[in-house]
Amino acid sequence: MKKFKLGLMEKRNLKGYLYISPFLIGFLCFFLIPIVQAVVFSFSELKIVPTGYTTTFVGLDNYHRILFVDPDFVPILTNTIINTIVDIPAILIFSFFIAVVLNQRFIGRSFVRMVFFMPVILSAGVVIKMEMNDIMNQAMVQEASFMMGGEYFLNLLLQLRLPAGFIQYIVAVVNRIPLVIEASAIPILIFLAGLQSVPTDLYEAADVEGITGWERFWMITFPLVSPMILVNAVYIIIDSFTSYRNEMVVFIADNAWSRGGYGVSVAMSMLYFLAIALILGIIVGVFSKRVVYIK
Amino acid sequence: MKHLLYRQRVNRSASVDFVIFVFLAGGAIFTALPLVFAISNAFKPLNELFLFPPQFFVRNPTLQNFADLFTLMRQSWVPMSRYITNSLIIVIGGMAGNLLFGSMAAYALSKHDFFGRHFINSLIVLSLMFAPAVVRIPNYLTIAWLGWIDTYWAVIVPAWASTLGLYLLKNFIDAMVDDSLLEAARIDGASEFFIYRKIVMPIVKPAWLTLIILTFQQLWGVTGSEFIYTENYKTLPYALDQIVRGGIARQGVGAAAALIMMAVPIVVFVINQSRIVETMGTSGIK
After folding, report:
1. What is the ipTM, given to two decimal places?
2. Which domains does chain B have, with CATH numbers?
3. This prediction's pTM
4. Which residue has the higher pLDDT, B39 or A160?
5. Which of residues 112-131 of A touch B (CB under 8 A)?
6. Does A282 touch chain B (CB under 8 A)?
7. What is the spatial distance between Cα A147 and Cα A140, in angstroms, rounded to a whole number?
8. What is the tens place of the pLDDT at every residue in A224-248?
9. Chain B: closest CA distance from residue A291 (Å)
10. Residue A63 included in any domain
């Protein structure tokens, strides 16, 4: 019996279970069980019948259909992945820069913070999703092209006789600016929270030693906020891959109710999930070695 | 010494400030445009709303849209206050549970070394990657099995188990909470709950205030129409949606409703952020 006696540390660590159990139960019910069920569905054909639904096991048929029969799946998948990978560094740099600026004291700071958070509020409002969207887009495009002189800008580039590839790149980057700003809203908040959590005593000690602002930023702020870069990278990937506006998500949802059927659409989600997991794994692997933790 | 002081002043020159200001203003104007548009839209009379090409700014502002909206709200079959109460129950219930259970789990996963910890951690990251559409049908089946269809629980309880908040808090606790601080507290005889409540949570306050904004934002727009059928339990977004869908002539009412729906998260955001401002983090060790 003596073998099972726990030491002080083990006893304390066991209390951890107490703290995670409420969450874990919910997690099991609303994530794990549904996901396992979805995996089962991906190997079957699901039919809606008057009394509910029936499933028939079809093996790898759904997967075969997606990868070798469906002409759209693979191109859409590669397209989505490339777009996201291109956007990640831009969003990270932009949101970090804005968060650092918004963390300083100036008049109207909370208003500017609110303004940068606006895209999230706008994209979630149910009422706004309706007809208004079209009208808003039309008005926005008009206003924006007036402000930036869209065609004038393009003509200017053409007149400069720059190589065509270069012009295409610039236009592509300019076109993605709105997307980058929109996607930065929540990363900015997370970075801000990170900046505000940096212990002030470190700054005090550094000030006593006579540190310059530049050193202060790169030697204290940046290393201590670096874990948040990883968090944000993960967040950005997940957000862009699972957003309702993502091409792939729309395609998968389309398949659930028309085209292939629910089984095929779930199988697509599984492949999509594997792709995201792979990318996330690589990025976490690269970042986590370079991140600093207080300990 | 004089040399040092000089260098410090150069660090933050007027020209750099100007560049930062221009950059910030550019981004801010861009994101503020939809807000300005939504506000100006809500005050447009009907004939301006249907102008083509659409006008950005209102020319003859009117409060008619709001008056119409309130008239329609008064006529609704279930009183509006009922919808508002439903929304509040769902938002506050979901938010509180998510914050409490998420932060407790985050503390344990970050600072306790029990068996299966790493496995649970990776499960949580994996669960973040599933598009919500995938689990929609299985989720419905679970809730039906629990007998929660047509109750608030169908929306509130799944929100408790949302993993994004847990992931965020766990990373903040990993990064910002010093192990030696917890050890010192334990030597002084602090209980686990005391450490969680009085040491860990205050240090990561900016993180959970951010989480509150995110959860609020998510739950505020929930119509819950997949799970809730009884009119008495439906939420405010659902009710406003129904009013606005009454026809093309409700465009003005829709613009007013959109502004009201937006105003609430904005107010929550501003109050919330103003609470972070002065609580600059301290590690507690001096």
Report:
1. 0.79
2. 2-63 (no CATH), 76-244 (1.10.3720.10)
3. 0.80
4. B39
5. 112-122, 124-128, 130-131
6. no
7. 10
8. 888 888 889 888 888 888 777 777 8
9. 9
10. no
